[in-house]
Amino acid sequence: xxxxxxxxxxxxxxxxxxxxxxxxxxxxxxxxxxxxxxxxxxxxxxxxxxxxxxxxxxxxxxxxxxxxxxxxxxxxxxxxxxxxxxxxxxxxxxxxxxxxxxxxxxxxxxxxxxxxxxxxxxxxxxxxxxxxxxxxxxxxxxxxxxxxxxxxxxxxxxxxxxxxxxxxxxxxxxxxxxxxxxxxxxxxxxxxxxxxxxxxxxxxxxxxxxxxxxxxxxxxxxxxxxxxxxxxxxxxxxxxxxxxxxxxxxxxxxxxxxxxxxxxxxxxxxxxxxxxxxxxxxxxxxxxxxxxxxxxxxxxxxxxxxxxxxxxxxxxxxxxxxxxxxxxxxxxxxxxxxxxxxxxxxxxxxxxxxxxxxxxxxxxxxxxxxxxxxxxxxxxxxxxxxxxxxxxxxxxxxxxxxxxxxxxxxxxxxxxxxxxxxxxxxxxxxxxxxxxxxxxxxxxxxxxxxxxxxxxxxxxxxxxxxxxxxxxxx
Amino acid sequence: xxxxxxxxxxxxxxxxxxxxxxxxxxxxxxxxxxxxxxxxxxxxxxxxxxxxxxxxxxxxxxxxxxxxxxxxxxxxxxxxxxxxxxxxxxxxxxxxxxxxxxxxxxxxxxxxxxxxxxxxxxxxxxxxxxxxxxxxxxxxxxxxxxxxxxxxxxxxxxxxxxxxxxxxxxxxxxxxxxxxxxxxxxxxxxxxxxxxxxxxxxxxxxxxxxxxxxxxxxxxxxxxxxxxxxxxxxxxxxxxxxxxxxxxxxxxxxxxxxxxxxxxxxxxxxxxxxxxxxxxxxxxxxxxxxxxx
Lengths: 474, 293
Fold this sequence. Notes:
The complex is a heterodimer.
Chain A (H helix, E strand, L loop, with lengths): L18 E2 L1 E3 L2 E3 L6 E5 L6 E6 L3 H20 L2 H17 L1 H12 L3 H22 L17 E5 L5 H14 L3 E5 L6 H12 L7 E3 L4 H9 L5 E5 L2 H11 L5 E5 L5 E4 L5 H13 L11 E5 L3 H12 L20 H16 L3 E3 L15 E4 L6 H4 L6 E7 L2 H9 L6 E5 L3 H10 L4 E4 L18 E2 L14
Parallel strand pairs in A: 1-5, 6-7, 6-9, 7-8, 9-10, 11-12, 11-16, 12-15, 14-15, 16-17
Antiparallel strand pairs in A: 2-3, 4-5, 10-18, 13-14
Helix pairs in contact in A: 2-4, 3-4, 4-5, 9-10
Chain B lengths: L49 E4 L2 E4 L3 H20 L2 H17 L1 H6 L4 H17 L3 H5 L1 E2 L6 E9 L2 E5 L4 H12 L4 E6 L2 H12 L8 E5 L2 H10 L5 E3 L6 H12 L4 E3 L15 H4 L2 E9 L3
Parallel strand pairs in B: 5-6, 5-8, 6-7, 8-9
Antiparallel strand pairs in B: 1-2, 3-4, 4-10
């Protein structure tokens, strides 16, 4: 591999305050009990800011603000709600470099991903749902669909601003008001989004941001004045939320974990497939619920695919997330790094063979080299459990039926990949895969017009497209 | 729930006509044995238990029967979902024909004529949806890139249903589940009506296992289905007690089942059901493929 000179994106485009309050009723405000926590840059463990930790009283205030704002927001003509959302989309486009750098600082993802994937999709999502706000009677959910009320929304740390957009854009377009809790390790872009709402002149209370840890989220979910809960995160927490919501009559949508099969048939274009495999598992350090974390390769091309994959992996550049050439950034937190390390060690102990390309890890921050395991069986924990890191388990198959059987042999059902030149095989296999999104001869593609969500224990409900409106309409 | 009234409401054969001078021979009617309906067969409960409902001994389903029914439903699911939509539509229409031909039997069980009409019409309504719902609930997505992208609904899988006691209520929960390719385990409250419907299903080309009907006490069997790892969705329409419904919903959370709550807006079964009873039991699958030469 030839050398690249450093090509860092400028940090000066974003100005981070030393501390942030909660965004309630249009104002930033400290937490009532004064709790704060620090958010760090996972690439160097530098503290970026101190953020208020919302307690029960703060969540109460946020929900009350959303409740007060609800009748007015819901009664606004759809065309007017739309214009607020269009404004938000435009402001995000104008501030996208600033927000991309901020996201890479707080999350650790490569700037080329935050700049070229996250931010364009965030703006597009608001633009897409803005257009729905005055067309809801034509969406197929009855002639006079109504908003539900106050939505409590909890988003994860892997795509902080994009997941916020997936939650807030459809909720607002349909006339609901929201209280959103960003993840504990990535609160900053949501707080910057609060400022975007102010710039857009959004009425106070329509969007409220409460930062904090799991307790804050649990309190929000259980709050009696929340009518609708939307959560993206782990299947374990999803189960807890479903239990909490049971019997309350609250509406619930969940977008949870995955263990996607990426199936490579013997007639696949190998170079393209390898690009898809790499994108499938190493995009965003593998912190992707729909990551193609189980590679199923037809036996006859196993050697060829593996050799090509290893060659490609050796060219991946790991390091400074703000460097424009970086392919793999930092692992988001020490806790996540510990989990990736633990499951990888178990992979070795259970008999799978581990391989990583030569890869120098920075001294400070949280890092994990791109890793593959071969000789993996379906019983191995690394083939069953979501690792949520840059770790790929490679299995083989002989027939399409065996590939389908293995692909579906998981409690998850979020996504899957198929690589073959044969059109009829794509359609037949896609029909049989129990997954909400199937990428054929591509992987990890997202679009606001395209519904996303899982089968089985990957959750329920869809985000994106016309389907995404349903979760927010009564 | 079980009553011990006489079977006076049953059809009693007319006195045979004959010369007045001959001794009157009264023909004894042949009664029906009400058993379970699992995998297309009519077994007794493996527990050997029965209870008395309206003077009949009826099978009292156990948790083992519920598990057997899930096995039958799971086995039948791929074949039923894999049948063409046209074929499923014809099978549902055949059910309507069979209900029409058994009007007298349901009438004798106390089903009012208007409810029978509505029941038959509901089967016909859902029969027509089989090959239309995919176009209404899915379609092409205009993504910003050179991709073919399409969303289509698919059945969620095996649906456990706590059914209401009336014939129209029962049909209003079974039909929307099976028309799209789901298979079902139904906990029925009105046992004679439910098993009579099972006899219709058994003679309407509905493959065995697509609908399985268990009679008994749903409070006893429903918790096992709510927690069963091979059940995809739980319909609580027939649950009368909010406390039990909440408990079942909590049990279903363990495997993240799709749950239709009792207040899902279907208490008035004479109203237009809308799409919700079908779409609540569907998954949306979205397939992407690049375009290029």
